[in-house]
Write a structure and sequence with these properties.
346 residues, alpha/beta, eight-stranded parallel sheet, 11 helices, globular
Length: 346
């Protein structure tokens, strides 16, 4: 049966179908324009774990979503497909997470790494495993890009998109990143983990193809990261404190969006860490921080990016807590991004 015929039988006003696909949509990987790539990984997290299980939680929660979108009518018809979670990656996550927890407890208890061969080995094993995860993401996303799919990576923690960014850099000689987060993620090998969730954009900035990194909502960081952001002329930071203070003085979100967007080139990758939102929307995220954005602020910013004539070339949504409410909110952000991307491709 062709996908055109399948779509004609699909009722967008009906109940959410539990058919293993996002919102119960009737698409395959071959027929969908947007493919969601789940990466169940949170090996190096230093506070709350559990984001590795978010992709399946998001998929489950998505059946509660309605398809009609005021800004992108019928965009779902372009197709969205959620790839099955790779169980081998999840199994590797479980093994390495145990090693990482032991190692983190050791260093946080003032253990001396140079004097402990076991901990040195465990750190090495975790770093090798994280590199293998990056290679998996690179290979998967590169293949999907070669099929002319627009990829949305679903984490997992925020270390997961690095391989995808590498694949994008091969396809797009230059692009910008809109990074929504409470944290800079600019630490160098945080806690000894080369591919830490706190280091993803430190690592990504080694890619010359990334011409701008626009970080918004930042409100929890160390001096080293602050200095790193100031040193690199590609980085533009919109601190949560400064955005709020401007609004207290009467500056509108519309004006702030225009300023944010002005730092982005024609091609934009959106990296959305759920702790960029107010914690009432993501209470179980890996590292929650007071402050942050409302849901409507981010969906409006996404809308304005497209209206400005810029093109979203990919996205990730990471650090979703392993809980129904967190997954519900994340599924809605993912759907908005999918609709916008499908609308671009029409």
């Amino acid at each position: 049966m062709s996908m055109t015929i399948e779509k004609s039988f699909f009722n967008p006003n009906g109940v959410g179908l539990k058919n293993g696909n996002f919102i119960g949509l009737p698409f395959t990987q071959e027929s969908a324009q947007v493919v969601l790539l789940p990466v169940p990984w949170d090996v190096t997290v230093s506070y709350n774990e559990g984001t590795a299980f978010a992709p399946e939680k998001i998929l489950e929660a998505s059946t509660q979503l309605d398809l009609f979108d005021l800004d992108t009518k019928d965009a779902w018809k372009g197709g969205i497909f959620f790839k099955p979670v790779d169980r081998s990656i999840l199994k590797k996550r479980d093994r390495l997470r145990n090693l990482a927890v032991q190692y983190i407890d050791f260093i946080e208890s003032e253990g001396v790494l140079e004097k402990n061969k076991t901990m040195q080995k465990q750190l090495s094993d975790v770093n090798i495993g994280c590199e293998e995860m990056n290679e998996f993401v690179y290979a998967e996303s590169r293949q999907l890009l070669s099929e002319n799919k627009l990829v949305g990576l679903i984490g997992g923690d925020h270390s997961t998109p690095l391989g995808y960014l590498k694949a994008l850099a091969e396809k797009h000689p230059q692009f910008g990143v809109l990074h929504i987060d409470a944290h800079f993620d600019l630490r160098k090998a945080y806690e000894g983990f080369i591919y830490s969730h706190a280091s993803v954009f430190y690592n990504a900035l080694s890619m010359g193809e990334i011409r701008s990194l626009v970080q918004i909502g930042i409100r929890d960081f160390c001096e080293e990261e602050f200095s790193c952001a100031n040193r690199d002329e590609r980085v533009a930071v919109f601190f949560d404190q400064h955005l709020k203070e401007e609004r207290f003085r009467g500056v509108t979100w519309e004006t702030q969006c225009s300023n944010i967007i002005s730092h982005l080139p024609s091609k934009v990758y959106v990296s959305c860490d759920m702790d960029g939102f107010d914690p009432k929307l993501c209470p179980n995220t890996g590292t929650p921080v007071p402050g942050g954005f409302e849901f409507e602020q981010i969906t409006y910013l996404i809308k304005r990016i497209v209206e400005s004539g810029r093109h979203i070339i990919g996205f990730d949504v990471c650090e979703t807590g392993n809980a129904e409410w967190d997954a519900n909110v994340a599924a809605r952000i993912i759907y908005k991004l999918c609709c916008v991307c499908n609308n671009q491709l029409v």
